[in-house]
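Q: Can someone sanity-check these two? First one:
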Amino acid sequence: MPRIEDNARDEHFWQAIAERYDLAPGPINLENGYFGRMTRDVAQDYQRNIDFINRNNSVPVRQHFDTTQGLEIRDSLAGLLGVAPAGLALTFCASDGLQSLIRNYNGLQTGDQLLISDLEYHSVEYAMRGVARQRGLEIIEISHTHPATFESLVASYRQAFERNPRIKLMALTHVTHRTGLVMPVEAIVAAAKEHGVDVILDGAHALGQIELDLPALGVAFAGFNLHKWIGAPLTLGLMYIDPQRLGDIDPDMGNERYPEPDVRNRAVYGTVNIPAWLTLTKVLQEHHEMGGARGKGARLNYLRNLWVSEARKIEGIEVLVNDDPRLYCAITSLRFTHVQDQQPMVDRLLKDYNLFTVARNGSACGSCIRVTVGFATTLDDINQLVRALRELSQAHT
């Protein structure tokens, strides 16, 4: 049985995986963090489920999905997080669940403080600021240095707790969408608990590429996407509430669809994408065939390290994520040091080298270029990126 680390370098294995995806001609996609591709078999299964529900309409939904299938699917997803199924509710995406958790958290009083950082996702930041305005709360925002260290990240939160004793609730992004930094969740959550602070974890980019055990991490509230690294159709997410903490989150908009206590009342009420949910059986089968989060993560990290190790040697290139293996994943951002706004360099990468990346702004480090490898990324793609970085940087040195 090969080690996961060895399998990450097995090009024969990963070429077979890459061949499961149908790729359109065009730019080399190094922006795989937005959402993931479905494999050919998953896409076909999804289409079959669309046709099935379209032909049969509400009959199988009322008779099976609403009564048993939905719960069976939820049970199968619980293992991805190491939690009891009773703590999970189906959502449309991570933001959907996270916003519900934020607006329905009932442990706040006028004058309390909410904590965010410069690396939160927009929808989470907006929700925290919106709740603060509505309830007379104060927002405390911290900024992280780049490249951060494990110790500096934990220390920044400890200092925030000590300086602001009225913090009651904080957002914590597991994998930051701007730079790709992976937060030391367990240590930060432990520090928050010492100061009586509850944490809502944004796991949108984590699920599927990082092995998760929410009870071990100490996480009571979280939201996740299934359409990034798990490989599911779009519009699928999960919300988690520790069953022992269910009373701290009110039913969303007074939702009474299910008899209390039931975590599903904390999710937005509405008809879900039933064909997409029915496709999850096939999705999870392929997820495990690819090695699960551990195997996928090892492959993505291997590809990430191939380009990052070369980029660090290039004068005029700054990589914004530490090489501590606890702090990086498939996503890593860089910047050309000779320019402030990185969008023109994103444009050059596409126009001159056929490389599709994305600029990200909003963090304390300023404008950067997000590079996200994927399961169809080849070694030739990595070499093309390194050549482009080297040539574009040399043109300005």
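And here is the second, same format, sequence then tokens:
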Amino acid sequence: MIWIELVILLAAILIGARLKGIGLGVMGMLGMLIFVFGFHMKPADPPVDVMLIIVAIVTTAATLQAAGGLEYLVGVAEKVIRSNPSRITFIAPFTVYFLCLFAGTSHVVYSLLPIIADVAAKKRIRPERPLSVSVVASHVALTGSPMSAATAALAGIMAYNGAAIDIMKICIPSCLLGLLAGAIAVARKGKELNDDPVFREKMKDPAFRHWMEAPLEQIRGKGSARAKLAVVIFSITILLVVCCGAFPQMLPHFEPGKANFGVNADGSLKMNAVIAMITLAASGMMMLLTKTTPAAVAGAGLFNAMAVAVVAVFGVVWMSATFMQHNELALTHALGDIVKAHPWTFALAVFVMGMFMFSQAATTRAMMPLGVTLGLTHPALIAVFPAVNADFVLPGYPTLLAAIQFDRTGTTRIGKFVLNHSFMRPGLVVLTVAIALGFLLGTFFF
């Protein structure tokens, strides 16, 4: 029976991923309906904590965007990328990583992809190289960002004081070194641009040749005072979140009682609640001090993306959690001994689920509780955390498609066999190195 249920689970995720947008959530809910009414599965708790964290964090990022702060940050990143164009394969992914780490969302990479493609092409560097590893950088930045829902979700699952800081201590350096390995892996990938037959054919087009020969120009000007103030408030917000995670003894403590979204049973505040309060309060401060209207925030692109993310997480994670809960004994019996003896093998299971879910937060919420059930230690859970970034494997994620569209030279592409696309090599290298280093760093920090 478990195999039939697994097929239904994967089918709902695959069909939802093909539909894109809220399709993943509604197909997850269809699978949930089949599980409950067809297989009489008892519904698990819905992922309310992750959904609320997404609402809080993305609202803050959307306020930053509406105030002009996000555009200002992208302008700063653009200057860094253009400062040394001959080293763009190494500079671009690290610039993207730190911008997404700061913002807590990979969506900001869309503004940088055309810049990376333009700079690389005009320096006659194959754009596939910096574009592919930069897209991967925008994903892995979320596993360690204090402003990402995925990091907050894992910290909540591990549920001990200082969990968020431990995640950052291990995942940030391991992912940075993984990115370095990924950049090295693609530094000589493919033919040089001038030798690429597709590029040489495109150069016969006068309009394309004119674009290639046009000089590099600075696109963005200086940020306004309003935008800079928004960035300052956002920076203070991140600092406060990090401090609260690092020094939980500074937080209010209440009488022990029933646990809820805000407090644990022992009366201590949950980091999820702390993050939600700080980030939404920061949104209010940005609106007041930068005179950004709520209507402008609601109309921001990131705010609209939040609705899609919430629906997707609600449907697919609730369905997955119900499947895991119903088959907990069977899964523990089948995987328990293997995972206990070789904790890294759990990364493969997380990786496979991440391929289909297209959401780091959803994959974290669906799979990491299973890791706890299987007896994985906290260092092991953190080490395998980067595996949730497997959304590059199936080339349907928006960041991948955007990179392909922005590369006017045609070097960034999906291969004949679908999986042999431009992002596979850097993605596998980055995650493999990051996970291996995560286990190594865990022995030092724990």
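A (reply): Looked at the second one. The mean pLDDT is 88. The two ends are 40 Å apart (CA to CA).
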